[in-house]
Specification:
16% strand; 8-stranded parallel barrel; binds 1,3-dihydroxyacetonephosphate; TIM Barrel; 249 residues; alpha/beta
Length: 249
């Protein structure tokens, strides 16, 4: 059985004071109840140094929310993989639907970012997911497979080192969660696609994201191909995030 991963995506939330309070509460909760799953928080770039210091004794891994597809140079506003690495970053989200939607990120760009993250020895969390219109048109499978295929073809056998997050766009921040059966169905499709690409696909963690919360985490995480969660809103509340972590044990 794959070890589960519970990753928080803080998105564009936080402050020095709020981050410290949240992380201290999470570390205290984890110390009281050692997590049997992997735990990570993906934080806004300016807070990486703060989080690196707060997490210096372990407890949770540090993640970033995006990275440049370029190695370095004249790319104003961008952040490179080597910069993330200096701050102890272990995971980096790539292709989150908010990046695809608001920043025009294409499948090819997402695949290049995944490649950069892998080459730097970090783990990309590759996000895929269909919009409501795509689901209603019966195109869910086609869309998620296309998004994942780009990453597979750019990364070859290294694909066994990625984490995948299935995040149906219609479930993100809306309070509408995919049912455990709906999520499992897509996770099984993604697993089969990974198995066709890699002999080690069974160890690839496939996370579910989209309004996962303290109440629904257990039933989602009980599905055979749901290996964890990528949590937005509920990751900002220590008690909720700790409940989700406990549900993953
Ligand atoms: P919510 O949990 O707030 O729906 O966000 C999910 C998400 O986008 C995580 O990356």
């Amino acid at each position: 059985m794959t070890k589960k991963l519970i990753a928080g995506n803080w998105k564009m939330n936080g402050s020095l004071a709020a981050n410290e309070a949240l992380v201290q509460a999470l570390l205290a909760g984890l110390a009281a109840n050692a997590a049997l799953c992997d735990v990570a928080v993906c934080v806004p770039t300016p807070y990486l140094a703060q989080l690196q210091a707060l997490l210096s004794n372990g407890g949770m891994a540090l993640g970033a929310q995006d990275v440049s597809a370029f190695e370095g140079g004249a790319y104003t506003g961008e952040v490179s993989v080597s910069m993330l690495k200096e701050f102890g970053v272990r995971y980096c989200l790539v292709g989150h639907s908010e990046r695809r939607l608001y920043h025009g990120e294409t499948d090819a760009l997402v695949a290049t970012k995944a490649q950069r993250v892998l080459a730097a020895g970090m783990t990309p969390i590759v996000c895929v997911g269909e919009t409501l219109a795509e689901r209603e048109a019966g195109r869910t499978e086609e869309v998620v497979k296309r998004q994942l295929a780009a990453v597979i073809s750019a990364n070859g056998h290294c694909v066994s080192e990625i984490v995948v997050a299935y995040e149906p766009v219609w479930a993100i921040g809306t309070g509408k969660t995919a049912s455990p059966e709906q999520a499992q169905q897509v996770h099984a499709v993604l697993r089969a696609q990974l198995q066709a690409a890699s002999a080690h696909a069974d160890r690839i963690q496939i996370l579910y994201g989209g309004s996962m919360n303290a109440a629904n985490a257990h039933s989602l995480l009980a599905q055979p191909d749901i290996d964890g969660g990528l949590i937005g809103g509920a990751a900002l509340k220590a008690a909720d995030f700790l409940t989700i972590i406990a549900a993953a044990q």
